[in-house]
Target: Nickel import system ATP-binding protein NikD
Amino acid sequence: MLSIRHLSLRFRRYQGLLRQSQVTRLSDLSLDVAAGEVLAVAGASGAGKSLLAHAILGLLPPNAITEGAITFQGRRIDQGCPPGLRGRRIALVPQQISHLDPLARVGDQLTWALRRTKAKGAPVEILARFGLGPEVLRLYPRHLSGGMARRVLLAMVSAAAPDLLIADEPTAGLDPENRDMVLALLRGHATRGGAVLLITHDLAAALPFSDRVALLRDGELCGMEDARDFTGTGTGAALCSPFARALWRALPGNGFDANA
Ligand SMILES: Nc1ncnc2c1ncn2[C@@H]1O[C@H](COP(=O)(O)OP(=O)(O)OP(=O)(O)O)[C@@H](O)[C@H]1O
Ligand code: NI
Model:
């Protein structure tokens, strides 16, 4: 469904009036996301995960220079994501829940999201799918717990039934129960035939809900693994990349030893 080939991303930096330099944030990145699968993109803070999402959606600032190809359902989208695709066929669940309008009730925001994307369904049904009762329609974002706000965001974004859902740290700040609920909802999107790019720095939590894992470090793809290969408390011998093995051994419960 989504195919990225040799994607590089640099930012132009201006130093004074005449001097200009460039800083590379993504280098030569290639990956695919197929219909029906959850691809987790894991990496430390600053690895370039959000930039990858923004590159796919064409949301980079003007000083960004990209190279390479991004193809969605057979169409090149790296020269700008056509408006008909963004928000409808490809949707982003943003990293910040502050994307909810603080001055509008949940019900109104859902209605607007449905209208904007010409999606079908009633707000109350959509909320129910995310484990939220009808009373939530009348609430303002400040009345929502972190877990509820995440689910409302997810409900708004997935109301349009996009083919590709890009979720940027959708579980940040959630307790394990809410975290797993959000991850299961994303998994459900893939099981219904959609594709999910799940950006996370919590690999351990994402693994049970993911099919494959792309490991990003300093803007480089340094491992593409089958999620099932992260198993047991052993050495992670089934994993292909040394970085993945080191990461696996460093997870709590596996010995805490990233250097072994
Ligand atoms: N507009 C920009 N201009 C220059 N550098 C940027 C810009 N946006 C992001 N960066 C830098 O690019 C790097 C990657 O940023 P990105 O937001 O993709 O990280 P991330 O992997 O999503 O991290 P986190 O887990 O903290 O969200 C960071 O060092 C960041 O400071
Ligand atoms: Ni990020």
The helical segments are 49-57, 106-116, 123-129, 146-158, 176-191, 203-206, 242-250. The pocket of adenosine-5'-triphosphate (ligand 1) is lined by residues 11, 25, 43, 45-51, 61, 201 (CB under 6 Å). The two ends are 38 Å apart (CA to CA). Residues 169 and 200 are 5 Å apart (CA to CA).
